[in-house]
């Protein structure tokens, strides 16, 4: 019986893995059915008879008898006294030859029967081998079917995971871009705030100068001889004007002082943590936006602490070197070294201080960029960082 060719369908070459899996399963079942029919046909066509022990014994006896007759004939040929023309002996000789021939034919027939038995026995062995082969094939097909099912399930999960990961990457890229845009917007707001602070300081200075000038003018007017009634009227107007100016200056000064005091208190707290807490403990709640670097405010806080408590100031200087990579007394100590530095490069110093201890997987890449541009500032007083480098830094920092 000719075996059908088994066609295997590769699931990975098709989009619909479920449909291909079903097609493979149907082909396997057809193949098993064909093999079972083939074995059943062999069993029906090659029914094995039991060996006939008496037939085998009969063959042996006939062979012995033939041997005896041949010896007897040979003896007769060797006897010289026997005459060939003796009719009775000739007839006996012919009878013996005929009997020997019949026995030889019977032996040949029996040998054919024995050969048939051996052939049937061989067929039986082949049938047993075919049954064992069929059993092995069933086991192999079952194993292959299970492997295919599990492989399809794993492939579906992997495809689903890849699709999910691809979606996450697209969202992650969008979020990084959004964070970079927010960072740029934050920088612009900081610059606007700094400019507003400068304008406010200039306005306060202008008001103070105007107030001083009004006071001088008032003294000059009072000292100038005038009529008493005219002096009283002008004096009342000037006093009201001076009172209003004093209120404005006092409010602005109070707001500026409160803001500066709040910033100083916060930076003193952070510098104290940096100088007292081991780097291995600088994680968890300590690593947050509140405890980011603020290099300009930290410089002013250290300068102020040098006057009130030099010992504490020395600890702060060591923490300053660790966080910002700048040595006090060499890179900065006056307080105006970073006055002309762009806001983006100031942000580089502050990010380095934040990620130095207890950061995630991007820590090394962030520190490499920060240290590179801090080194440029130390060696050549570079006041800016290129926009491409800064964007890359922000993407790593907010990823």
Automatic annotation (TrEMBL):
Gene3D superfamilies linked: 1.10.287.1490
UniProt entry keywords in alphabetical sequence: Coiled coil
Domain of life: Eukaryota
Coiled coil: 52-79, 165-199
Protein name according to UniProt: Uncharacterized protein
Organism annotation: Penicillium concentricum
């Amino acid at each position: 019986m000719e075996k059908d060719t088994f066609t295997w369908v590769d699931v990975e070459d098709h989009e619909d893995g479920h449909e291909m899996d079903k097609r493979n399963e149907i082909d396997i079942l057809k193949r098993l059915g064909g093999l079972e029919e083939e074995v059943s046909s062999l069993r029906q066509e090659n029914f094995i008879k039991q060996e006939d022990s008496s037939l085998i014994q009969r063959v042996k006896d006939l062979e012995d008898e033939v041997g005896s007759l041949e010896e007897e004939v040979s003896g007769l040929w060797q006897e010289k006294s026997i005459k060939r023309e003796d009719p009775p002996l000739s007839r006996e000789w012919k009878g013996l030859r005929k009997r020997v021939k019949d026995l030889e034919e019977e032996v040949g027939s029996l040998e054919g029967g024995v050969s048939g038995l051996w052939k049937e026995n061989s067929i039986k062995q082949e049938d047993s081998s075919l049954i064992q082969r069929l059993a092995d094939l069933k086991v192999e097909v079952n194993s292959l079917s299970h492997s295919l099912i599990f492989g399809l399930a794993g492939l579906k999960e992997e495809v689903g995971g890849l699709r999910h990961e691809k979606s996450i990457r697209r969202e992650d890229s969008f979020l990084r871009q959004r964070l970079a845009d927010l960072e740029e917007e934050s920088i612009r707001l900081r610059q606007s705030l700094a400019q507003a602070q400068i304008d406010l300081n200039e306005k306060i200075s202008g008001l103070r100068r105007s107030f001083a000038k009004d006071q001088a003018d008032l003294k000059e007017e009072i000292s100038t001889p005038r009529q008493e009634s005219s002096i009283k009227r002008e004096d009342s107007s000037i006093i009201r004007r001076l009172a209003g100016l004093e209120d404005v200056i006092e409010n602005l000064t109070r707001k500026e002082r409160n803001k500066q005091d709040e910033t100083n208190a916060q930076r003193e707290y952070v510098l104290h943590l940096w100088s007292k807490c081991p780097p291995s403990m600088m994680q968890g709640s300590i690593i947050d936006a509140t405890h980011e670097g603020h290099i300009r405010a930290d410089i002013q806080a250290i300068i102020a602490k040098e006057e009130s408590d030099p010992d504490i100031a020395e600890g702060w200087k060591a923490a300053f070197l660790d966080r910002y990579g700048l040595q006090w007394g060499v890179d900065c100590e006056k307080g105006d070294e970073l006055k002309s530095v762009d806001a983006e490069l100031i942000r580089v110093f502050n990010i380095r201080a934040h990620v130095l201890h207890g950061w995630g997987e991007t820590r090394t890449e962030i520190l490499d960029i920060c240290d590179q541009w801090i080194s440029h500032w130390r060696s050549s007083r570079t006041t800016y960082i290129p926009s491409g480098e800064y964007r890359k830094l922000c993407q790593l920092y907010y990823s």
